[in-house]
Write a structure and sequence with these properties.
Helix content: 10-25%
Radius of gyration: 20 Å
Number of helices: 8
Structural class: alpha+beta
Number of strands: 11
Largest sheet: 5 strands, mixed
Strand order of the largest sheet: 7-9-10-11-8
Strand content: 15-25%
Shape: globular
Order of helices and strands: HHEEHHEHHHEHEEEEEEE
Distance between the termini: 21 Å
Length: 342
């Protein structure tokens, strides 16, 4: 495997901004889709109320926003368009140089294309396009009210909390223990067989070591670690009263990218599993993907994260479901791995 040195979030180790507030895994934030239709007001299609499920993609949308900044030095209505129901960039290469971005602009564009392939995961989530093209359309409807015609320029100025091998070792010391599921379940032909295999292996380990079941109650104590990215922004648009706020509005089609913004400063968060640092960088570390925004969490990582351990959630065994550890495998989509089998 050819390792890539460019991080999806820029020149730092990490790849994307998470949501500003983490929904703890123990809260069990799993959407009840059936209730959407029942709650729809007269004249409003049920699917128009189903956007809340898009929280699970906030790390991906945040990384898209960051990759656009690294590639173009700005982001706004001119960055994307909708083609065949998919969100696609209006540019086919990166500007060079973009201040604060990596030295190889082509890698920023490749990172962006990799992230956008998540739109092709309709087999796992039939509503995934709502969270990219649909999100873009809803944002654009509101953005026009700002009167902004030229979005601010961005410059990355600081990366806070970039992890080292020592950071990863220390973080691992406080992780709860969870059942580990071997790759044999990945090889089964059907989804039902794979799910049954995983549930069986998890239950076996719960019975063998009852303390593992107790450890399941501790998973929300340690949320996925983050790194902060700091940007300086500037604007010459007469309709912009605060460059930071304007930058946040210009990037709001990509939830999770902007954590805080005011004046000339914009801050963002990042999680680890979409980093394209060298293959094996995180060996011995467990990516807390299932805890991201509550179960089932995130399931896709960068292709360079293959073979590294990840946390996944299953509704089995009943009634509370379970967290367990698998390894990231090739998802079959360009540039993406997946926590265990699809």
């Amino acid at each position: 495997m050819t390792a890539r040195a460019y991080s999806l979030f820029g020149s730092g180790l990490l790849s994307l901004a998470g949501a500003a507030t983490i929904a703890l895994a123990s809260c069990g934030r799993v959407e009840d889709e059936a209730s959407d239709a029942a709650d729809a007001p007269p004249g409003v299609a049920a699917e128009e109320l189903q956007q809340p499920h898009c929280w699970r993609y906030r790390n991906v949308t945040a990384a898209i926003g960051a990759a656009v900044i690294d590639c173009q030095g700005t982001i706004g209505p001119s960055s994307f368009e909708i083609k065949d129901g998919l969100l696609v960039p209006k540019f086919d290469s990166c500007r060079a140089p973009v201040e604060g971005a990596p030295a190889e602009p082509s890698r920023a564009f490749q990172a962006l294309k990799t992230l956008l392939t998540v739109q092709q995961t309709e087999g796992e989530d039939p509503r995934v396009k709502e969270c990219f093209a649909g999100q873009w359309n809803r944002w654009h409807e509101l953005f026009q009210r700002t009167g902004i015609t030229q979005c601010p320029s961005w410059k990355k100025t600081e990366i806070i909390g970039q992890p080292t091998s020592g950071t990863l070792r220390q973080l691992s010391k406080m992780y709860p223990r969870a059942p580990k599921v071997s790759s044999e379940c990945n090889e089964l032909a059907s989804r039902a067989e794979r799910d049954a295999c995983i549930a069986h292996r998890v239950e076996e380990q719960f019975e063998k070591d009852p303390t593992l079941r107790h450890e399941q109650t501790l998973v929300d104590i340690v949320p996925p670690p983050k790194t902060s990215q700091t940007y300086t922004v500037s604007s010459s648009d007469a309709a912009c009263d605060d460059p930071g706020a304007c930058a946040a509005q210009c990037a709001a089609a990509f939830p999770g990218f902007v954590r805080a913004a005011s004046g000339t400063r914009v801050d963002g968060d990042a999680t680890y599993w979409l980093s394209d640092e060298d293959y094996g960088t995180y060996m011995g570390y467990q990516h807390q993907m299932a805890q991201y925004q509550g179960p089932p969490g995130d399931t896709y990582g960068h292709i360079n994260r293959i073979d590294e351990e990840c946390w996944r959630w299953s509704p089995l065994p009943k009634p509370n479901g379970s967290y367990f550890v698998m390894r990231l495998v090739d998802s079959g989509l360009p540039g993406l791995s997946h926590c265990g089998p699809l």
